[in-house]
Every structure is written in structure tokens, then in C-alpha cells.
Amino acid sequence: MKVRLLHTGDVSPGHVRSAFSSLAPPLVPGETTAFRNSLAPSYDRSRAQYDAFRVLESVPAPEPDWLNLLLVGVDLFVPALTYVFGLSHLDGGRGILSLARLRPPEESEISESILVHRLRVEVAHELGHAAGLVHCVVTDCAMHRSLWPESVDLKNPEFCASCLARFAQP
Predict the structure, then answer these.
(1) Residue 143: what pLDDT?
(2) What is the mean pLDDT of residues 15-37?
(3) In this prediction, what percent of the chain has a pLDDT beyond 90?
(4) What is the side-by-side strand order in the sheet with 76-78?
(5) Region 129-155: what's the mean pLDDT?
(6) Going from the N-terminus, what domains does the chain have, and what CATH number goes with each?
(7) Which H, E and C letters describe the chain, residue by residue?
């Protein structure tokens, strides 16, 4: 499946490249493009966050055999949770991912490598959901559930054999 990575202006070109450069098979880089829609309608003033469901609805549906992922720098939430890293339409071909909660609290060279690892893992995770994969019990699989940023550090940016096999199923 080809991947179109859309991104907002608050995401650095380096992070766009990092997200796109090492996609886990069977995902294939297709194109990157700036996202022109405003996220302002999805902002919730009472939470000072962006409603992930509303942001996701602004992501265009992809063409057949493509997946669209919007990369943002803003903090996302769903009503039942304090925050989410991302959100996808299960088997709907589109998703969103935020860098806001993936950033380590300190700024250093090592924290940038942690952020890039987390970014790659969660890109695979949200694209997996967009392609129809559910959470996986294999703890180092990209599709394993992560509830806090440090748990992302324990995963690989690839899919386990079981998840890869599900990609091949019609």
C-alpha cells in the first residue's frame, strides 16, 4: 500500500522525512504534501486541545491502494481520554498522528532520537489501523497498544508476522 503523508506547518521537514523514510513493509512511501485545511474548527478551548475525531474528518479519503496519514504538532484528545497519540478510521484508509505527546520532556540530541523512534513506531501503528489492523498482543509489534509515551519506546516500527499476514488477507 502506498502512503501519502500530509503534514501541518508546525511539523518540521526533518520530522516529515523521518516519518516517511523508514515505513514498515508492506507500506510504501508515495508522496508528502502540506495540509492546507485549518485545524481551528477542531480546537476545544475548554481543554486547550484539538478534537481528534474532528481533525480526522478533515483528512481526505485516499484513492484505492493508498493510505492517507496527517502528521500534526498539536495536542489531540478524544472525549473519554486525556490525550491520544493518533486516531484512524479502522480499515478506512486514513488517520492522524500528533507529535505533541511523543516528545521527551528534555531537549537534547538523545531526546531527538527518542522522538524519531516514537514517530516511526506510531506512524506504522496508525497506518496499520487505517489498513484494518487491530491492536496486537505481541509486545514489541508496532500494533501493540501504547497508553503513555515511554511504552512506545518498547515497540519496534515494524509489524509482527501475524500482523503482516493480516495485510495479505483480502
Answers:
(1) 98
(2) 93
(3) 89
(4) 43-44, 49-51, 76-78, 81-84
(5) 96
(6) 2-168 (3.40.390.10)
(7) CEEEEEECCCCCHHHHHHHHHCCCCCCEEEEEEECCCCCHHHEECCCCEEEHHHHHHCCCCCCCCEEEEEEECCCEEECCEEEECEEECCCCCEEEEECCCCCCCCCCHHHHHHHHHHHHHHHHHHHHHHCCCCCCCCCCCCCCCCCCHHHHCCCCCCCCHHHHHHHHCC
